[in-house]
Amino acid sequence: MKKRYAIILAAGQGTRMKSKLYKVLHPVLGKPMVQHVLEQVKAVGLEEVVTVVGFGSDKVKEHLGNDSKFALQEEQLGTGHAVMQAEELLMDKEGTTIVVCGDTPLITKETFEQLFEHHEKEGSKATILTAKAPNPFGYGRVIRNEQNEVERIVEQKDASPEELQVDEINTGTFCFDNKALFGALKDVSNDNSQGEYYLTDVIEILKEKSEKVSAYTMPNFDETLGVNDRVALAQAEKTMKRRINEYHMRNGVSIIDPENTYIQPDVVIESDVVIYPGTIIGGKSIIRENAIIGPNSEIHNCEVGENTVIKQSVATDSKIGARVNIGPFAHIRPDANIGDGAKIGNFVEIKKAELGEGSKVSHLSYIGDAKVGSNVNIGCGTITVNYDGKNKYLTTIEDDAFIGCNSNLIAPVTIGKGSYVAAGSTITKDVPSDALSVARARQSNKEGYASRLKNRLKERK
Ligand code: UD1
Ligand code: CA
């Protein structure tokens, strides 16, 4: 196998997106397009990747970090000019260079691998990845001669009416003999309707030098989509969503309504998980066996344990144990650590808090900056008062404690093991283990007062 290199074209401004966000950073299922491309192309095994970036490039560099080298294209003078910017980093290399566009997020590593193999087997100087398009509008067309050999690529805007009838399109991905590529680029001119230096002209240039040029036609047109505007972005999202959902379903996950379920690419889901409609699972989430998620739930960067049920709720950056019951309408905010068998009911918010095994917060409570032991029962309407407007403080509730309804626990404070807090208490001092703490005004009943008051009010009229 020859040494392999990649150039990712990502400097175009993406005018047609009408966006302040750099085109290749627009996400498809939560991941920037260019990152999809980079991850898939890297999977074929590369010596080096160079991403060509332009205006606003800092954000692209930030996203890709050390996974790529970068070349700057200061002015966007076309795809051929973009590839030339990688010359300094790559021109001396012996081997095969794949050129891919940062705006074709659906092409898979399998397709890239097939293209490399085809190119190497044919011994070509250039191989175009092509596809038959049901609607080729907007793409460059692949023009073949009578022997069915590739002659050149003509862009939509430069094509004659006959050429526009051709339905074989250039996907924008090529394999080149590295030295032949940089040699031919020197002869590319900008004499065309857009006044740009087209990479696609390299094909005709190599052909004129009697070099071998070929095409690999991919069977799956779905992958080729180039995202130039938001209509195509939505199409990419749809295709990627279907692909990911089908992968999980084949792996033993039940997705009740795949059209309405959004699972991001890095999520891991074990078998026999059931996902109800309107659910979004993202980031690096892991969903363990037999969990039930949804309907209408959003899980981001969470580990969810076996047999846990999450209904109509939002959970972010947290660890949720096994056999936990969450929702409906709960909010698990970052850094929650929910123990096995815990219960978090409706209108409960948990933030930066540990909840021990079997503990229950069943209704209408806020538990933030807290360390709650196991088998604790937190009554309806309990609040950990964690914030004085400047600093946040910790509430500790030890094992087996029972917090009565509508209590305020003013942090920093500790509720001892097995103790009771009476309903309606505002706790400002630590409660020792095994104690009952009552912190509310005593009740006094004034017998007969109501009718006396009513009579007095009547007389005043
Ligand atoms: C390009 C191809 C077309 C192909 C289509 C596939 C050319 C001339 N045309 O057209 O044959 O069918 O892709 O999707 O190559 N870019 C730069 N610098 C530039 C210009 C573009 O880095 O100066 C990057 C863009 O960020 C983008 C990629 O190159 O990722 C393609 O550019 P774009 O303008 O989208 O080309 P298309 O018109 O789609
Ligand atoms: Ca494009």
From TrEMBL:
Residues the record lists as binding UDP-N-acetyl-alpha-D-glucosamine: 9-12, 23, 73, 78-79, 140, 155, 170, 228, 333, 351, 366, 377
InterPro entries tied to this protein: Bifunctional_GlmU, GlmU-like, GlmU_C_LbH, Hexapep, Hexapep_transf_CS, NTP_transferase_dom, Nucleotide-diphossugar_trans, Trimer_LpxA-like_sf
Required cofactor(s): Mg(2+)
Catalytic activity line of the entry: alpha-D-glucosamine 1-phosphate + acetyl-CoA = N-acetyl-alpha-D-glucosamine 1-phosphate + CoA + H(+); N-acetyl-alpha-D-glucosamine 1-phosphate + UTP + H(+) = UDP-N-acetyl-alpha-D-glucosamine + diphosphate
GO cellular component labels: cytoplasm; membrane
One of the GO BP terms on file: lipid A biosynthetic process
Region annotated N-acetyltransferase, chain positions: 252-461
Region (Pyrophosphorylase): 1-230
Molecular function in Gene Ontology: glucosamine-1-phosphate N-acetyltransferase activity; magnesium ion binding; UDP-N-acetylglucosamine diphosphorylase activity
Pathway involvement of the protein, from the record: Nucleotide-sugar biosynthesis; UDP-N-acetyl-alpha-D-glucosamine biosynthesis; N-acetyl-alpha-D-glucosamine 1-phosphate from alpha-D-glucosamine 6-phosphate (route II): step 2/2; Bacterial outer membrane biogenesis; LPS lipid A biosynthesis; Nucleotide-sugar biosynthesis; UDP-N-acetyl-alpha-D-glucosamine biosynthesis; UDP-N-acetyl-alpha-D-glucosamine from N-acetyl-alpha-D-glucosamine 1-phosphate: step 1/1
Documented EC number(s): 2.7.7.23, 2.3.1.157
Active site residues per record: H363
Compartments (UniProt record): Cytoplasm
Binding site for Mg(2+): D103, N228
Family as reported in the entry's similarity comment: In the C-terminal section; belongs to the transferase hexapeptide repeat family.
Free-text function comment from the UniProt entry: Catalyzes the last two sequential reactions in the de novo biosynthetic pathway for UDP-N-acetylglucosamine (UDP-GlcNAc). The C-terminal domain catalyzes the transfer of acetyl group from acetyl coenzyme A to glucosamine-1-phosphate (GlcN-1-P) to produce N-acetylglucosamine-1-phosphate (GlcNAc-1-P), which is converted into UDP-GlcNAc by the transfer of uridine 5-monophosphate (from uridine 5-triphosphate), a reaction catalyzed by the N-terminal domain.
Entry protein name: Bifunctional protein GlmU
